[in-house]
TrEMBL record:
Its EC number is 5.3.1.25. The gene is fucI. Belongs to the L-fucose isomerase family. Pfam families: Fucose_iso_C (PF02952), Fucose_iso_N1 (PF07881), Fucose_iso_N2 (PF07882). This is L-fucose isomerase. PANTHER family: L-FUCOSE ISOMERASE. Residues 389-553 form the L-fucose isomerase C-terminal domain. Its cofactor is Mn(2+). Residues 10-177 form the L-fucose isomerase N-terminal-1 domain. GO terms for biological process: D-arabinose catabolic process; L-fucose catabolic process. HAMAP family: Fucose_iso (MF_01254). Pathway: Carbohydrate degradation; L-fucose degradation; L-lactaldehyde and glycerone phosphate from L-fucose: step 1/3. One of its GO terms (cellular component) is cytoplasm. The keyword Isomerase applies. It comes from Rodentibacter rarus.
Length: 589
């Protein structure tokens, strides 16, 4: 299948602004200003990836921007080139509101060169004031150390902010115009599967698409899928997908013939759901031209329970495989698919994937285990409490931790670094267990694996609060290993046929991060996403672009990077965030 970034590349626009006075001033600055722009291009085009692994493309204005005519010409070029975010650079004074980017939907940053020859910092402050006054928040980038005028290097602190802005801004621009596909409706009364169209449209710039789950059944019955791919997938499944324990009573266990039919159905469901999301040109050759188009869905959710799963196989295999980076077609970017149609967890999976290129772990925030409780149940006492993350459906197999870095340590690689060997190791450490009959009367196959310990993770979640809107929660921490016997005892107290991640957040000793229990107690929903790596600072920057306040995080204050306009809303960072987001409102309202 074709990825979105291949068909519709979002580019980053670089705007070199300059003092417009001719006959000496502008002429003396042209080379230095354009050199700054090119240095930013070099940085971004060697560090920022699209989710298919190719490096981002940048576009520089045709000339330095000294006034409104050149600013307008730059804006026209950027529209033609599909620019989705802009970075303005300058070493000098320029004419503030005459040279700024006026697009209200475009994330924007300004790098003012810290040098003594010309007042780049003065322009930076003036332009930021103009942005704030016009209601167009922009990010301020200014190095801590004074540079020489002819210095072509980008200081490390400036690099960090440029890259953080670019990752978040590219995410914002990529979501705009895409769809969230809701397959089915509300699962078991879960609030986040009541898809909030206003949130998607006004905060993310996305549209909502809907199909009933019977559309999957229709395609199963009428053979609206590529049979060649089905045959390939079934052969691959037979080779690489190992069945696990069956905890069902004898009368609820399936015969070998029934299991073979079950495998065939869940494989077909996977292919059909992917086709619903992004289309499949092969369907047009089967005289299904409408179905071949798909729904332009960058993310989707499958209701499953209970209207489907009381009668038909659950979506666990489909969800786990689509969210992973390796299947019968080889290595590829994940397709974001949330179990139980949890649209808000789907958005967090989307955020994590867009920022990192990695597959994501979807999980229940299932149980807080205190050291005392663990000791009472197992006889072994850990140093701290921990949280059990576990869910039957959407956790990508990459979450096993069987990708290995150069030193052999467990990791989750971005899709473009994943190898077939990585994918096969993930499969080798996964078992496919028959679904528990009491939960899934229609059967199914659930992935069962254990995430390796010692991996950095960022747990995050968006919740909707009536009267306030969306808020984001973030908790950075690590997966941990438990003694095998302890893991077995604790895991069997819940559902041992599902994937498990044991997680410990980084504590600050204050508020929601006073202790591990406080993190669990302050979590706002039954689900979360675990993204490999500590990406909380990137999530905070992204949330500010979308006007989503962050209600809980354990990120150091020095790493918080938001638009400079936030400084006008008081001195406490959390209060600033809430007031600024409320004042400016959703990005696309």
């Amino acid at each position: 299948m074709t990825s979105f970034t291949q068909t519709n590349r979002i580019k980053i626009g670089i705007r070199p602004t300059i003092d417009g006075r001719r006959m000496g001033v502008r002429e003396s600055l042209e080379e230095q200003t354009m050199r700054m722009a090119k240095s930013v291009v070099d940085l971004l085009q060697t560090h920022i990836h699209y989710t298919d692994g190719s490096f981002v493309e940048c576009v520089i204005a045709d000339s330095c921007i000294g006034g409104v005519a050149e600013a307008a010409a730059c804006a026209d070029k950027f529209k033609r080139e599909n620019v989705g975010l802009t970075i303005t650079v300058t070493p000098c004074w320029c004419y503030g509101s005459e040279t700024i980017d006026m697009d209200p939907h475009m994330p924007k940053a300004i790098w003012g060169f810290n040098g003594t020859e010309r007042p780049g910092a003065v322009y930076l402050a003036a332009a930021l004031a103009g942005h704030s006054q016009l209601g167009l928040p922009a990010f301020s980038i200014y190095g801590t150390e004074v540079q020489e005028a002819n210095d072509t290097n980008i200081p490390e602190d400036v690099k960090e902010k440029l890259l953080r802005f670019a990752r978040a801004g590219l995410t914002v621009a990529t979501l705009r115009g895409k769809s969230y596909l809701s397959i089915g409706s509300v699962s078991m009364g879960i609030a986040s599967s009541i898809v909030n169209q206003q949130f998607f449209q006004e905060y993310l710039g996305m549209r909502n698409e809907y199909v009933d789950m019977t559309e999957i059944k229709r395609r199963l019955d009428r053979k609206i899928y590529d049979q060649e791919e089905v045959d390939l997938a079934l052969s691959w499944v037979k080779q690489y997908c190992q069945e696990g324990i069956d905890v069902n009573s004898q009368e609820n266990q399936r015969t070998p013939e029934e299991r073979a039919e079950l495998w065939e159905n869940v494989v077909k469901m996977s292919i059909i759901t992917r086709d619903l999301m992004v289309g499949n040109p092969k369907l047009a050759k089967l005289n299904f031209a409408e179905e071949a188009l798909g729904h332009n869905a960058i993310a989707a959710g499958f209701q499953g329970q209970r209207h489907w799963t009381d009668h038909l196989p659950n979506g666990d295999f489909m969800e786990a495989m689509l969210n992973s980076t390796y299947d019968w077609n080889g290595v590829r970017p994940p397709y974001i698919l949330a179990t139980e149609n949890d649209s808000l967890n789907a958005v967090c999976m989307l955020f994590g994937n867009q920022l990192t290129g990695q597959a994501q772990i979807f999980a229940d925030v299932r149980t807080y285990w205190s050291p005392e409780s663990v000791e009472r149940v197992t006889g072994w006492k850990p140093e701290s409490g921990f949280i059990h993350l576990i869910n039957s459906g959407s956790a990508a197999l990459d979450g096993t931790g069987q990708h290995k870095d150069a030193n052999g340590n467990p990791t989750i690689k971005p899709a473009w670094e994943v190898t077939e060997e990585d994918g096969k190791r993930c499969l080798a450490h996964t078992r496919w267990c028959p679904a528990v009959h009491e939960y899934f009367r229609g059967g199914g196959l659930s992935s069962q694996f254990l995430t390796q310990g010692g991996m950095p993770f960022t747990m995050h979640r968006i919740n909707l609060i009536k009267g306030l809107g969306p808020v984001l929660q973030i908790a950075e921490g690590w997966s941990i290993d438990l003694p095998e016997q302890v893991h077995d005892i604790l895991n069997k107290r819940t559902n041992e046929t599902w994937p498990t991640t044991w997680f410990v957040p980084r504590l600050t000793g204050k508020g929601a991060f006073t202790d591990v229990y406080s993190v669990m107690a302050n979590w706002g929903a039954n689900h979360c996403v675990a993204t490999y790596g500590h990406v909380g600072a990137d999530l905070i920057t992204l949330a500010s672009m979308l006007r989503i306040p962050v209600c809980m995080h354990n990120i150091e204050e020095r790493n918080i990077f938001r638009p400079s306009a936030w400084n006008g809303f008081g001195q406490d960072k959390e209060g600033q965030d809430y007031r600024a987001c409320q004042n400016f409102g959703p990005l696309y309202k």
